[in-house]
Amino acid sequence: MTVPPAADAQGADAQGADVSSAVRPAPLPPSLEWVGAIDGELHALDQSLLPHERVVLKLRTADDVADAILRLAIRGAPIIGVAAAYGLYLGVRAIAPEGPASLDTARHVAAMLLATRPTAVNLRWALDRCLSRMRKDHDVASLLAEAARIDRENAEATFAIARNGAELVHDGATILTHCNAGPLACGGIGTALGCLIEAHRRGTRFSVLADETRPLLQGARLTALELAAEGIPVAVIPDSAASAMIARGAVQAVFVGADRIASNGDFANKIGTYSIALAASVHRIPFYVVAPMSTFDGALAHGQQIPIEERAATEVLTLMGSSIAAAGIDARNPAFDVSPAALATAFVTDQGILRPPFAPAIKAALAACR
Length: 370
Ligand code: MRU
What we know:
Layout: E1 32-35, E2 41-45, E3 56-59, H1 62-70, H2 77-95, H3 103-114, H4 121-136, H5 140-166, E4 174-177, H6 183-186, H7 192-201, E5 207-211, H8 218-229, E6 234-237, H9 242-247, E7 253-256, E8 260-262, E9 267-270, H10 273-282, E10 287-290, E11 296-297, H11 314-317, E12 318-319, E13 322-323, E14 336-339, E15 346-349, E16 352-354, H12 358-369
Parallel strand pairs: 4-5, 4-7, 5-6, 7-10, 8-11, 10-15
Antiparallel strand pairs: 1-2, 2-3, 8-9, 9-14, 12-13, 15-16
Helix pairs in contact: 1-2, 2-3, 2-4, 2-5, 3-4, 4-5, 5-7
Bound molecules: 5-S-methyl-1-O-phosphono-5-thio-D-ribulose.
């Protein structure tokens, strides 16, 4: 098999049409926003209804937040961490509206929120941060302050990531991305898409192929929407086309997000990422994994320890609400896969671009965050 070097094929097969202002979607509201003071509520743009409906959910209880995370109205590793932090506050506020609250109460609410989605470590990271705040200061208000701090720092991290990653986007390139790691999923400017948005704002001209991302179509529904709203040329492709597009030289680099990265650099991301990483490696194009340091799990030695969420079979057996298989057919629905660290060219983080050998680079970056 001929393995085309990326440089020979530069921009040769870019399919993204320019997004003219006539068809450019209106800018999106923030995916998450705390509204009000201590008695406020969490507003969340329902991602499950995009791109056709823009509905803002008003969440007032921890159960509201857990339900929104479970049904992917709130989704994306960094933003579910931020949402869970606010959810913990809402849950404790309901039990102890004023003054001191017990750590046991907070632990109970946190466990309920943690159970919603097992793969993205940002959820646990944010809840742990709030619980350790509670250990120092048993006041309910301090939980809200901590959630707001996590929210602000998370957004700042995405801008730092975007500044670092924009350097890796070159004029004339076609970039492939999978799932959705934009502002909706990550807050701020987004992670993988943040690098692309920042590069575009700096004047770099490139186009994007967005994998549709079966079964829930985050790429077709959300990534294409976010990039088009920024005026970035984007074309949606079937997931099954990605490796063939790479093989024929139509892609110069891959940018993806991550849901959990082990200390050796093995990384979990939306199902389908592994096959793209394999194709990128065989055809020698750069594969960038883009994530905040809150996505790194220093407690895990390698990726086989990452829990993989298995979701309902109906997500595979239906398409936009219609059944696509004969009655009684079963399905499997692993929502994430794990790729070995060796398939990543670099990790683009808020602590800089981490390059091999990954284990010491990740250790140093995590230490710098403490
Ligand atoms: O839609 P989800 O929450 O199931 O997917 C998680 C993700 O957002 C992706 O895996 C993404 O690529 C990395 S996190 C922004």
